From TrEMBL:
The gene is mqo. InterPro entries: FAD/NAD-bd_sf, MQO. GO terms for biological process: tricarboxylic acid cycle. Pfam families: Mqo. It is an enzyme of class 1 (oxidoreductase). Pathway: Carbohydrate metabolism; tricarboxylic acid cycle; oxaloacetate from (S)-malate (quinone route): step 1/1. It comes from the Bacteria. Keywords: FAD, Flavoprotein, Oxidoreductase, Tricarboxylic acid cycle. It comes from Cryobacterium algoritolerans. The keyword Metal-binding does not apply. Its cofactor is FAD. This is Probable malate:quinone oxidoreductase.
């Protein structure tokens, strides 16, 4: 490709977001040219890498942070249902791509894995009982079970109850239609299909600068990290899907929409075991309640993981702090992200989140014994000799202006797009990869308003529930769950 040729779409970053957006655009407008630039030697090596995330397939089936108790003790299902609705859009897209041959045998990237919650203590049991009552009649949560009986919970997954002291009040929910997703494999397959469709996938290439030209297009400066010379490319549309690196690139772009935004990096670690005797006794993803002051992505969970066909167990995450915005970037990411327009919100966030700072410092200096104790709250028989400590991916949470507090820390995702729709980027993390499809569909609608009406019929073919709420129609919800389960070889 002539490096100065004007391409239709440039995707910065080789993760699940860029892969999903590229796939959607190629399906909707096959004649558009797409070029992808990833600074590492392979795609899916940062947040999309299977060992840098929990692969839960976040559908709010087990994540308690999507249904916190209100001050009066009440529990509502609205956010959990909304998250599940978004995940169904992703499932429908993946099912369509499998059916049409764009994705391979689905067990290569998604597998049925029951989702469970598990709590201890009188107050937590009372909370979980309320949560179950709020969800049991929701169409997208059909089949959820609840128990306070150690024998029943032990039958679901023996590791939770083996050698647990008698008399301890415990409770759990289970829904067998949960999934484990290898987002690394899914990302690679999506990019492989894009390449086969004519897209250019460039690794070891870093975008070092970008500038909007008079005609509205963007000129990107590129640096080849392994051999070669600097080059440039012009693009009619740019998506910055660079994870923790997105904030710096959006700031470089100069678009006013990014003003006031900052990033707060949170690192993490997992304990992992591949001991077949231990792995065989736990086949589920089990989420508990977060510690006081803990960020939502630090909710403790004990997960079955299936990566490259091999099963293992993952426990954590143990949160920590580093100023790096990417796992493989520089310690100067945080200070270099400070601008006059975002220093106020960032200082306000620091002032209002002392509990979080204290929690993160405690996690950074936690001993092996402390980490083992946290694991033993889930697995009483756990021995540290059976588990190895691995480093998870970096998560950069959004800090932004707030009229009341000056600045707030947002545990979610935020799409930043220019007024003219020629550049957009994604900031934030949870629920992230699991909701890549609905996030990218919304981005397309926002950035391509002229083309969207013509694209909508094809989008509805790929995502039948688009624009509707499955939770409002039990029959439609059941049909959709059954159809995607069949296409993806999942438990309905």
């Amino acid at each position: 490709m002539n490096p100065m040729a004007k391409v239709d779409v440039v995707l910065i970053g080789g993760g699940i977001m860029s892969a999903t957006l590229g796939t959607l655009i190629k399906q909707l407008q096959p004649d558009w040219s797409i070029e992808v630039y990833e600074r590492l030697g392979e795609v899916a090596q940062e947040s999309s890498n299977p060992w840098n995330n929990a692969g839960t397939g976040h559908a709010a089936l087990c994540e308690l942070n999507y249904m916190p108790a209100a001050k009066d003790g009440s529990v509502t299902a609205d956010k959990a249902v909304s998250i599940n609705e978004q995940f169904q859009i992703s499932r429908q897209l993946w099912a369509h791509l499998v059916t049409t041959g764009a994705l391979p045998e689905p067990t290569n990237f998604i597998n049925s894995t029951p989702h469970m919650t598990f709590v201890r203590g009188k107050d937590n049991v009372a909370y979980l009982r309320k949560r179950f009552a709020a969800l049991e009649n929701e169409p997208l949560f059909h089949g959820m079970e609840y128990s306070e009986d150690p024998a029943v919970i032990g039958a679901w997954t023996p590791l939770l109850t083996s050698n647990r002291p008698k008399g301890h009040k415990i409770a759990a929910t289970r829904i067998v239609s949960g999934t484990d997703v290898d987002f690394g494999a899914l990302t690679r397959y999506l990019f492989e299909n894009l390449a086969e469709s004519g897209a250019g996938i460039h690794v070891n290439q870093q975008v070092t600068g970008l500038k909007q030209l008079a005609d509205g297009s963007w000129r990107l400066n590129l640096r080849r990290l392994v051999g070669g010379h600097p080059s440039q490319v012009n693009a009619r549309f740019v998506f910055v899907g660079a994870g923790g690196g997105a904030l710096a690139l959006l700031q470089q772009s100069g678009i006013p929409e990014v003003k006031g935004f900052g990033g707060f990096p949170i690192s993490g670690q997992f304990l992992r075991t591949t001991n077949p005797k231990i792995v065989a006794r736990h086949q589920a993803k089990v989420y508990g309640k977060a510690a006081v002051g803990a960020p939502p992505m630090s909710v403790p969970h004990l997960d079955t993981r299936i990566v490259d066909g091999e099963a293992s167990l993952l426990f954590g995450p143990y949160a920590g702090f580093t100023p790096k915005f990417l796992k493989s970037s520089t310690w100067f990411d945080l200070p270099f992200s400070i601008r006059p327009h975002n220093i106020g919100p960032m200082l306000a966030v620091a002032a209002h989140n002392f509990g979080l700072m204290k929690y993160l410092l405690g996690e950074v200096f936690a001993s092996k014994a402390t980490k083992l104790k946290a694991l033993q709250e889930f697995v009483p028989t756990a021995k540290l000799t059976d588990w190895e400590l691995i480093t998870a991916g970096q998560r950069v949470q959004v800090m932004k202006k707030d009229p009341e507090q000056g600045g707030v820390l947002q545990f979610g995702t935020e799409v930043i797009a220019s007024a003219d729709g020629t550049i957009a980027g994604l900031l934030g993390a949870s629920p992230g990869a699991s909701t890549a499809a609905p996030i990218m569909v919304d981005l397309i609608k926002r950035c391509f308003p002229e083309q969207y009406p013509a694209w909508e019929p094809k989008l509805r073919e790929m995502i039948p529930s688009l624009g509707t709420k499955l939770s409002d129609d039990p029959a439609a919800a059941a049909a959709s769950l059954a159809a995607t389960a069949a296409a993806l070889n999942l438990t309905a």
